[in-house]
Amino acid sequence: LVRKKHVVSRLHDALAWQALPVVQLLAPDERVCLHLIGTLFELLHTVEDSRALDLFVEVLVRLVVELKSEQYLRCILDESQKELCKATTMRGSLPTLILLGKLADAIPGFVDLLVVEHSNLVDHLLMGLTYPNEGIKAAVCYVYGKLYSSPVGTERLSAHFEERLCDTFLSTLGRAQTRELQVNCLGLLKELLKTDHFVSILMDNSRSEEESENPDFSERENPLPLVLKKLLLTRDEMLQAASSHCVAAVLVHSPSRYAPAFIHADVPEFLFERLSCNSEILIWSVYCCLLLLTEERLFFSKCHTVYGIESLVRSLHVVLQMNNVELQKQGLLLFTEILKRQPVEIKLFTNRGVCMEAIDVLMETVNYPVLEVVVEAVRAVAALLRKDHLSSPPVPYEELQKLLEAVLKRCADISPSQSSKSHSSHPANRNLSRVPQRQGQFLLNTLESFRNACRLAVEFQSDPMAQENAFTAPNSESKDTLSNFSEFLLRICDSLCIPMVMSYLQRAVSPSVMEVFMSTLNTLFRVVPNMRNKFSKKLASSSFIQLTLELKARFCSVQRNPALNQVCSSFLCSLCLNLYSATEKERTSSQEG
């Protein structure tokens, strides 16, 4: 055996460094090749040393790859079939299983050949999953993963999975103790989750009509979510990432259909907890899962977002320190969707400190050097400016002022000439081929943020608790009041918002941008009621009546852009009424005088 190992080692070196002469020497004589392959195959089952086994497998695989003939593949499959049939225990089949996995890795057509011409080998694989040795199970799962990665294998083995493999596989995955078996099971699972039919089987969604109508059935625990939750609880970040990736791979087929099972298993709770790590791969996987879960209302009604919002905010702060723009955008997108979809009746920020942290993170992101990230951040700002998100006393008016001012200044700073200079230096901005479109989108998002802030100020007018900071010291004046915030909105609209939009109109006109802008101006009439007449006069003297009429004529004829038409009409009506009211007051005061 020692001499044979030495010869195989020399053959390994020859194939590694001088493969062509070796192949030229062997290829002309098929009998020699078949004898050599048969001998190497027999040697696999005579060694117990794992290093020697690896050597023999590598040489046999490399030899078959270099010979490039299906005849030799069939020879190995025939020998494998014989070996698996005569093996007294599955332990003796381990070298064969390892070889099959390595051949499937190295030769693209090998899997199809196995499935089409040697499908009875699959029965032996299934037996391996019931054998009480995790090394055997790991090798079997690896081969299965290769079989189901092939379209031919997926089609031919569909019934095999549904009728025989599914339950055994889920049991194996759930009880796996060694990392090798866990990894190989997850590899097989990832391949299965690419096919909608297999996902349906794994999630046990092939329900009868009676079961679908039974409310208790929807809440019964499904084995796959529980198994994936168990892997999320391990301390291995790679397994955690693979588990969360599998959750996302299920949900992407149909969030509404599959999300409830994961929610009832409390998987979201542990996904949020995993955000405390520094692994970009794991954080990305968790962001993807949670983003898909936001499409299901149950995700919010079970208060998972309330529990997890602090983890998400802190994760965003960590991610901003990383040089990964896509990860930053994904995290901000998730934050935005949670802010937008959170039901009004379920308070998201139960802790004011977390709300302040969220504002701080958004402030940091608005000042980020990458335009794509800033655009996502401004969307999040717009979603944050909701009464139910910010109504916990005291309302952080001063922080909101700083945030809004930062958003408006950042948008005002981005002009075609400036953006090409200031953002080209950052690697993530060098390939921005649609900068003008992004600038238009940025302006739209900025105006939506500002409009939401104006609406928020109007809503707070009817809330006595939101008028001023209840925690202000006696005999001291607080700047953190609704009155100051409202005056700030009017002031910054005049100094930043209106000039910014007027500058934009010189380059382009977008109906959606102008709709939000005119709606914002209309709301501002109610933000500071005692200033609306003065504000109206300023708008009228700045040709806003003419601008509004031009917008209606250009974009709203023949029933186009009905939303823009309506908001323009509403703005004109309010403006004219305010001007009339101002005129009447002046006339009354002059008569009294």
Instruction: Find the structural class using helix and strand composition.
Output: mainly alpha
| Poorly predicted tracts of residues | 205-220, 417-425
Summarize the main sheet: none
Beta-strand content bin? under 5%
The counted number of beta strands is 0
Instruction: Report the span from N to C terminus.
Output: 121 Å
Helicity range of the residues?
over 70%
Query: Would you tell me the overall average pLDDT?
Result: 88
Number of helices: 34
Computed Rg: 33 Å
Q: Judging from the principal axes of the Cα atoms, what is the shape?
A: elongated
Organism: Todus mexicanus (Puerto Rican tody)
Protein name: MEII1 protein
Give an account of the 3D structure.
The termini are far apart. Helix 3 (30-44) packs antiparallel against helix 4, helix 29 (435-460) packs antiparallel against helix 30 and helix 29 runs parallel beside helix 31 (511-527). With 593 residues, this protein is an all-alpha fold. It has helices at 2-17, 19-26, 30-44, 50-67, 70-86, 94-106, 110-117, 121-129, 134-147, 151-156, 158-175, 179-192, 196-202, 209-213, 215-218, 223-232, 237-251, 255-264, 267-274, 280-293, 297-301, 304-319, 325-341, 352-366, 371-384, 387-390, 397-413, 416-422, 435-460, 482-505, 511-527, 532-541, 544-555, 562-592.
